[in-house]
Design goal:
single chain, 584 residues, Rossmann fold, 8-stranded parallel barrel
């Protein structure tokens, strides 16, 4: 069976339907999930042209339908020296010399937007005529017959196959987030400079290779099973990974597409990528100092002030400069935490939005931002939903947003009512942008008890007795920057937020923060064994050995730190020496 989106293209282009939608219109469209009835249709015939080695100047046409972080793709294109022309009508697609479609978010809502704006058929015509095309992530998935995501839902029907969800029952965490290896199946042209190096994936759904689509498949990736990582047919390319977030390797992919005759300025570095790598994430705690300047600071059990007479905010440097430095030093992701965001109005925090915008111009790895993502009413009485707040962060350059206190409140309500209202920030954002775009940040502290029956929460037997000889402890969750304890444990919170739509957990520990004595292995093992989504270990790293310890003793997918990056210690060299696969 094939999708029905590419019906006869009679007048879409001539109607020149405007594609300039307001953000509220886009959000409304994307919330209208349609479980389309699949219909059989004769296979479409594609014309295969000789590989196009030229383009009209340095202009690239970009199809941005208003979902997620497309700013990063724009920045990568401009970084490579090309200008961008945005698609505003279906005719712009038909006239494009080189078209890039960076699909982001959920399959059904993307098809809904493309169909309602008249773009779906124009896309089919562009591709059928073998015009140069590059789809990214969802931009690859939409080419297939259909998807099981919120469906079945019809796709464009150009490539045989159904996009299905990864199976988490075999021990692999879903979403598939991180740097993984490619297995090149045939001459792909745009992958020529990759070598054996990792590229960045973030998705919960994938298309599988089959006899019906094997002529399209140019590379696969293994994550439980071999799935399609890229396709090529003539001048038509699409990749499941994100080249704009894959560092220099990803930029080489974009460069090859934009100028097929280009050669790399130097021989690509040969890596040893063979599987999903463990991620090393640089964290920047950002806040204004007493002079009003936005600075990167560092906490000591969440206290960011120097223990001096002046009691000033610790100042480690400027956020944009440090993010760029960490990217050059090999950080796999950069995470910004606006540590006063719980009391500020984020959409009024123009400096933080500018940090994201400027950072994304030169940092081509994933960016996460957290702090204050919840519903707001401003001083003028205007209400802003958490979805609108998150959307502004995405438009400013964020790839993922981190929710803290609001996720705790949502979990408490769900435990009490057993009802998913769909109104919490966690549920709203994951529904519209996909759960891979939502990180829940958990801020627990250890509470010692005499026995496991003393509390209603999950406890652990501690390796060292507590201050009064206690042999057990539970992890109490906090809100408002660790200032307020809540009656919910980290274990219970992690289980609930996964059910409500979180795609990843950032697991902090107030007791370990700033101590430099290592991660809380007991806590991380407890949570990473309890959920099927990726867990990021945080708080306490003071030496490179702490990273190998957390990866060897727990199921953490990534480890996050701040101070060790400031000191320029070679975490990855140590991990490689210990036999732990990382991106180089």
């Amino acid at each position: 069976m094939e999708g029905v989106a590419c019906a006869s293209f009679t007048s879409s282009a001539s109607k020149s339907l405007s594609f300039s939608l307001s953000q509220s219109s886009i959000i409304t469209l994307r919330q209208n999930y349609h479980n389309n009835t699949l219909k059989s249709k004769s296979p479409r015939k594609l014309v295969i042209r000789a590989s196009s080695g030229s383009s009209s100047g340095s202009v690239v046409t970009l199809l941005d339908y208003g979902a997620g972080n497309v700013r990063s793709v724009r920045n990568a294109i401009r970084y490579l020296g090309y200008e961008i022309e945005d698609v505003r009508t279906p005719k712009d697609i038909l006239n494009a010399d080189r078209l890039i479609f960076p699909g982001v978010g959920a399959f059904a809502s993307a098809m809904d937007v493309l169909t309602k704006t008249g773009m779906a058929e124009a896309l089919c015509t562009h591709i059928e005529n073998d015009r140069p095309f590059l789809g990214i992530c969802l931009g690859l998935q939409l080419l297939f017959d259909s998807s099981e995501e919120n469906g079945p839902v019809n796709g464009l029907g150009l490539i045989p196959g159904v996009v299905g969800r990864f199976n988490s029952l075999n021990g692999f965490r879903v979403p598939h987030i991180g740097w993984n290896a490619l297995q090149i199946a045939k001459d792909s042209e745009i992958l020529d400079d990759i070598g054996d190096r990792h590229v960045y994936f973030v998705h919960s759904y994938r298309a599988m290779p089959s006899n019906d689509n094997k002529e399209w498949v140019s590379s696969t990736c293994n994550y439980g099973d071999d799935f399609i990582a890229s396709i090529r047919r003539g001048n038509v390319h699409a990749v499941q990974f994100h080249p704009e977030k894959s560092g220099d390797v990803g930029l080489s992919v974009l460069r090859r597409f934009l100028n097929p005759k280009s050669q790399g300025s130097k021989k690509p570095t040969q890596g040893k990528a063979s599987k999903l790598a463990k991620r090393v994430i640089a964290c920047l705690d950002v806040r204004t100092n007493d002079k009003g300047d936005l600075v990167v600071t560092k906490g000591d059990q969440y206290d960011v002030r120097e223990q001096t007479k002046e009691n000033e905010v610790r100042n480690l440097g400027k956020p944009v400069e440090l993010a760029g430095q960490y990217y050059q030093d090999g950080a796999d992701e950069v995470s910004f935490l606006n540590i006063t965001g719980f009391r500020d109005f984020p959409l009024g925090d123009l400096p933080m939005l500018q940090v994201l915008r400027h950072t994304s111009e030169n940092v081509f790895v994933p960016l996460t931002v957290g702090g204050g993502i919840r519903d707001f009413t401003d001083a003028n009485g205007r209400y802003y939903s958490s979805l609108e707040v998150a959307s502004e962060y995405f438009r400013s350059g964020a790839d993922k947003i981190s929710i803290g206190s609001d996720a705790v409140y949502a979990a408490e309500e769900y435990i009490k009512t057993k009802v998913k209202t769909g109104k919490s920030s966690l549920e709203q954002i994951s529904k519209v942008y996909g759960n891979q775009a939502v990180v829940v940040s958990i801020d627990p502290r250890r509470v010692y008890v005499q026995g496991p029956n003393d509390v209603q929460f999950k406890t652990i037997r501690v390796p060292k007795p507590g201050p009064n000889g206690e042999e057990y402890a539970w992890y109490q969750c906090t809100v408002n920057g660790g200032r307020e304890g809540r009656s919910i444990g980290a274990y219970e919170l992690a289980k609930v937020v996964e059910e409500l739509g979180a795609g990843e957990i950032l697991l902090n520990c107030i007791d370990c923060d700033g101590q430099g004595k290592g991660f809380d292995i007991d806590l991380i093992k407890l949570i990473s064994d309890a959920v099927s989504i990726p867990v990021i270990a945080s708080s306490g790293a003071g030496a490179v050995e702490h990273f190998s310890e957390v990866f060897m003793k727990t199921n953490a997918s990534a480890a996050l730190a701040a101070g060790i990056f400031h000191r320029k210690e070679s975490v990855k060299a140590h991990l490689l020496k210990e036999g732990i696969e990382v991106r180089i």
